[in-house]
Amino acid sequence: MKFHGFVGPLLAVAIPLLLFEFLRSWSSLDVSMNHPHGHFYIVSSVALLATIIALMVGIAGSRLRNIEISFLSLAFISLAEMFTVHGFSTPGLVMSPSPLPGIAAQLSVLLAAIWLWLSSLSSDHVLVARLSHWKSYLVPVWTAALGLFAMIGILVPEVVSIVPFNRNPIKAVVAVTTIVLNLITMYRYNQSYRYSRFPLQLSIVYSSGWLVAAQIIMVSGTTWMLSWWLYHFLLLLSMLVMIVGLVLQYASKKSISGAMKALFTKDPIERITNSISPSVKALILATETKDPYTAGHNFRVTMYALRLAEEMQASPEQLRALAQGAIVHDVGKINVPDSILNKPGRLTDEERSIIELHPVKGYELCRNLGFMKEELQIIRSHHERWDGTGYPDKLRGEQIPLLARIIAVADVYDALSSNRSYRQARSHSETIAFLHDHKGTHFDPDCVEAWIRLCERDPQVYQYPARMIQEGGMPAAVAASGGVSI
């Protein structure tokens, strides 16, 4: 992971912890602030915001029947219910002093951490698969169970002290577990954000980070001291950043359900359409208008290339650049006359020279539109060859950008396995044989080996796009206009 992409979240955790230590080290500053009513108002605000988040996410989850969205909702249901108990049991407000406030506060961050961590797992993880069997019951049953715990705790506060959360070693184990789960959640959502750039993903990163800081202050601070109050404000910040993330996510998709579905989708088509910018979608539409085959070809090449790049352990930034560049890698063909582009017979030397201008034409077009360097390299260099005989710049070996080398394999695989105006499609095995025979001359050997290895391990990698070919290709205009369910 590139460290600079994690600097902001790490600073968000470090700064309040440094402030906490600063206050504790200056006894004249770390004054006692015994204000039960103020505590109640802050805690109630956290609980109210967590409830709003849980409702917004929960409604979307029930409509989409997505277990990961339900996990996200359960994290904030847990925080809301336990913090409601924490606030209601504030000593000196309506209840006598008891262990309940501390236990409820600790449970709120622990349970939220567990559910957030579960929401970050892949859908085929064993825990997610097991919990999916009870998907319809998770939210109502969990909400009712926490409500029952809250009722018992408020009516008989001595009962909750059966589990000594406020004594070691349980206190230490719970704190460490909460911190570790939140750090894992931060890492995984940050990885997703680097690829998709969804605001809610970044909000979850910061929210989890402040839960880490809150947990440390919770177990280290002294009740009612100024430094102790910091964790309450961190939890409030954690809820506010989630609200902001939800609003921004909603603004990009125009519905909470659409925003949640985009966040957790595993469908390869939706992954691509969710990650590309409006300007790229406009180019897809223009390409399809010019040549429907080329648009469908671009889409399938992108699907192949993303899986190949993942196999080669590309970074999230590289995957995002790949999605943006691969989907329009043939956009320069907009300038090629139809009589040449769709010619059924062999091209003349003059016609071929016109075709071979399309990488440069596409590069110039996209450069003027403000595309980034990595995307432009894909568009310009996807017809370069490993032995230096490609075009337009005669690059050789590793002079060719890695993403362009990946695209070269995906591009030729799709071209050979698709019907064209001048020939029939080859079978998968015939196409693989062609790639194998030309590795080290046309293709980067590592890319070819990775593609063969991937196809052998997971045939769906090429079978799913092949079905799209049989159905006439992916209608790119649908993706560009929002017709794909996102």
Quick rundown:
The protein has 486 residues and is mainly alpha-helical.
Notable characteristics:
single chain; 486 residues; mainly alpha; 0% strand
Detail the topology: elements first, then pairings.
Blueprint: H1 7-25, H2 36-64, H3 67-88, H4 100-119, H5 126-132, H6 135-155, H7 170-196, H8 199-220, H9 226-253, H10 256-264, H11 268-275, H12 278-290, H13 292-311, H14 316-326, H15 338-341, H16 349-355, H17 358-368, H18 373-381, H19 402-416, H20 428-437, H21 445-457, H22 460-470, H23 476-481
Description:
The chain is elongated and about 90 Å long. The chain is mostly helical. 45% of the residues are buried. Helix 13 packs antiparallel against helix 14. The two termini are 28 Å apart. Helices cover 70% and strands 0% of the residues.
- Helix count? 23
User: Helix share of residues?
Assistant: over 70%
The chain-level structural class is mainly alpha
User: For the CA atoms, what is the radius of gyration?
Assistant: 28 Å
Strand content: under 5%
In whole angstroms, the N-to-C terminal distance is 28 Å
Please tally the β strands and state the result: 0
